């Protein structure tokens, strides 16, 4: 939760569809542009508590989808009209790599669940940094030390 004076880097608007088996909830996330220490603004990231896939559709701006299975990270560049797929069992986070708000639609099975603690405990394998040319570059990032949450 943001505290007074903390910058808000992303916002999520969710549908009123129940997060239960058989349903397909949706949300639209907007990540504002910027970097902190050279790292592009990103969402908190999560792993699904049940092995379920998820689909993202780029709406505005440019960004990407960083996925991590605990061993390897995969980057999918996103722009308006690009569809990104998150396989079951992969943690995922979205990143704004542009100079305007990056907005995407997410659709997922209602019984998928969201485990943000998994990312806090295991990391995402890489950070998405602004390279010398301004383009995104993946930089290896070690797993958090045990008990560092």
Automatic annotation (TrEMBL):
Organism in which the protein naturally occurs: Streptomyces iranensis
Keywords for this protein: Gluconeogenesis, Glycolysis, Isomerase, Metal-binding
Recorded catalytic activity of this chain's protein: alpha-D-glucose 6-phosphate = beta-D-fructose 6-phosphate
Stated name of the protein: glucose-6-phosphate isomerase
GO MF annotation, one: glucose-6-phosphate isomerase activity
EC nos: 5.3.1.9
Pathway as given in its UniProt record: Carbohydrate degradation; glycolysis; D-glyceraldehyde 3-phosphate and glycerone phosphate from D-glucose: step 2/4
PANTHER family reported for this sequence: CUPIN TYPE-2 DOMAIN-CONTAINING PROTEIN (PTHR35848:SF6), OXALATE-BINDING PROTEIN (PTHR35848)
Glucose-6-phosphate isomerase prokaryote domain segment(s): 5-128
């Amino acid at each position: 939760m943001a505290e007074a004076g903390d910058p808000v880097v992303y916002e999520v608007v969710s549908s009123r569809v129940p997060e239960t088996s058989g349903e397909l909830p949706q949300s639209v996330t907007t990540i504002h542009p910027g970097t902190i220490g050279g790292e592009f603004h990103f969402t908190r990231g999560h792993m699904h508590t049940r092995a379920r896939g998820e689909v993202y559709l780029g709406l505005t701006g440019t960004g990407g989808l960083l996925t991590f299975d605990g061993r390897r990270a995969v980057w999918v560049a996103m722009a308006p009209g690009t569809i990104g797929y998150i396989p079951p069992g992969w943690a995922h986070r979205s990143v704004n790599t542009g100079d305007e708000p990056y907005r995407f639609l997410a659709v997922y099975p209602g019984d998928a669940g969201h485990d943000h603690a998994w990312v806090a405990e295991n990391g995402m394998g890489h950070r998405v940094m602004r390279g010398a040319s301004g383009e995104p570059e993946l930089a290896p990032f070690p797993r958090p030390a045990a008990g560092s949450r």
